[in-house]
Every structure is written in structure tokens, then in C-alpha cells.
Amino acid sequence: MRKRRIVITMGDPAGIGPEIIAKAFTHKKLLESAHLVVLGNRWVMEETCDRLELKFPFQISRGQKPNFSEVPLLVEADSIKD
After folding, report:
1. Global pTM value
2. What does 43-80 look like in DSSP terms, one character per residue?
3. Class of residue 2 by CB neighbours under 10 A (exposed 0-12, middle 13-18, buried 19+)
């Protein structure tokens, strides 16, 4: 069965979005169910994971074609070109 791709925006960096994403991505069942992509700020997600003492679960998009694997993908919102 082909996995669906789910794209999630981090939302306000000072809001609860980064924390909800970090905690949700600790659930193995969620990671196995879809290819997850987060649009947001790497620094905010790293700091959130550090504060919550969680492993940083993302591979980082660096402008190349993303590799949709079992690891969620973080695409920095300021790197998206029109």
C-alpha cells in the first residue's frame, strides 16, 4: 500500500504548533502511516525538541528533491521559492 504524504505547517513559532508536532512525531504508528512533511523553522523545531528532551526526528530539505523515507521531512519555510 502506498503511503500518503501529509504536509503540516508549524504555525506560529511562539505558539503550540512546534510542541504538538514534536510530541506527535514520537508515536511510531504515526510515522509508519504516512510520509510526513513539516513546513517550518529548523531552529524552532530543534529548540522545541531539546526543551522537551525529544530526539530531533527530521531529515532536512536542502533544495534537492526530497527523499520521502520513514523519517519526517522538515522544509524550512524561508527556503521555498515561488
Report:
1. 0.80
2. HHHHHHHHHTT----PEEP-SSPP--SSSPEEEEGGG-
3. exposed
Output the furthest CA–CA distance in the chain (Å, rounded): 37
As given in the structure block, the three cell numbers for residue 11 are: 504555525
15-68 residue pLDDT tens? 999 999 999 989 888 888 888 889 989 999 999 999 999 998 888 877 667 677
| DSSP-derived secondary structure letter, 15 | S
- Contact by Cβ (8 Å): 72, 31: yes
Closest CA to 57 of 23, 27, 25: 25
Taking each helix axis as running N to C, give the angle between helix 42-51 and helix 17-24, from 0 to 180 degrees, rounded to the nearest 10: 70
Contacts of 70 (CB under 8 A, 6+ apart): 31, 32
